[in-house]
Specification:
The chain is of the alpha/beta class. It has a single domain, classed as TIM Barrel, CATH 3.20.20.70. The protein is built from ten helices and eleven strands. Helix 1 packs parallel to helix 3 and helix 6 packs parallel to helix 7. The chain starts with a strand and ends in a 5-residue tail after the last helix. The relative contact order is 0.15.
Length: about 240
């Protein structure tokens, strides 16, 4: 299992996510680095913790349709690998994002209008480059696109697996940054049983080393972490065994 640090980007800086309430997100205050500038934060994580693969949630793209293309390229040169959620709602944006080196394209449920669009994106890119994010809020799918409505989280996961995505993220935004632990155990187990071949990443609520040990028993390939790293509730020693 990999620990994958999260950079939430808003207004061009890294912000602290709290329960998905994006209007209240503020620039990160971190014990790792005295800056909210994305490249500085990425370097601090890499140098201080040895974690080089990053997850970037570009809220400027997701919410405001302003993708930070230059920054993506710069972070790709800095990091050892990127997962980028840039509000992909079309094949065109996915293909452009896929042109960034060492990047996996995250297609978020809250941005993707339908399973048909997801299938088109998978057809346009190497399957291993496409990761679908099952975006939840208090366990309920964030489904603005009519094509997903009425489907349960497990049904959505099955649909994504059925079109051939290379990985799946299960993320409950309500758990992010509130120190309450992860709430996705049961759903992750259901997905692992339904589509065992699909690499699974989860996140939203990691508090410290014990949560990492618990999540590892779920059989997931990775776990997304942010606040616990910046608050030093997870140290370099804590994450050393998850660097690979």
């Amino acid at each position: 299992m990999q620990v994958i640090p999260v950079l939430d980007l808003l207004g061009g800086v890294v912000v602290r996510g709290v329960a998905g309430q994006r209007a209240s997100y503020r620039p990160i205050v971190s014990q790792l680095v005295d800056s909210a500038e994305p490249l500085a934060v990425a370097r601090a994580i890499g140098q201080g913790l040895g974690l080089e693969r990053l997850y970037l949630a570009d809220l400027d793209a997701i919410v405001h349709e302003r993708p930070q293309w230059v920054l993506y390229e710069a972070l790709a040169r800095e990091a050892g690998g990127l997962l980028i959620d840039a509000g992909v709602s079309s094949v065109e944006r996915a293909v452009r994002l896929g042109a960034v080196q060492r990047t996996q394209v995250v297609v978020g449920l809250e941005s993707c209008p339908s399973p048909a669009v997801l299938e088109q994106i998978v057809a346009a890119l190497p399957a291993e480059r496409v990761v679908f994010s099952l975006d939840l809020l208090r366990g309920e799918p964030l489904t603005p696109g009519a094509g997903w409505r009425g489907l349960s989280p497990l049904e959505i996961a099955r649909a994504a697996a059925g079109v051939g995505v290379g990985g799946l993220i299960v993320l409950d935004l309500a758990q992010v940054g509130v120190g309450a632990g992860l709430s996705t155990a049961a759903l992750c187990q259901q997905i692992r049983e339904a589509v065992p071949q699909l690499p699974l990443i989860t996140g939203g609520g990691v508090r410290g080393p014990q949560d990492l040990a618990t999540v590892e028993t779920w059989g997931v390939a990775g776990v997304l972490v942010a606040s616990a790293l910046h608050d030093r509730h997870l140290t370099a020693a804590d994450v050393a065994r998850y660097r690979h």
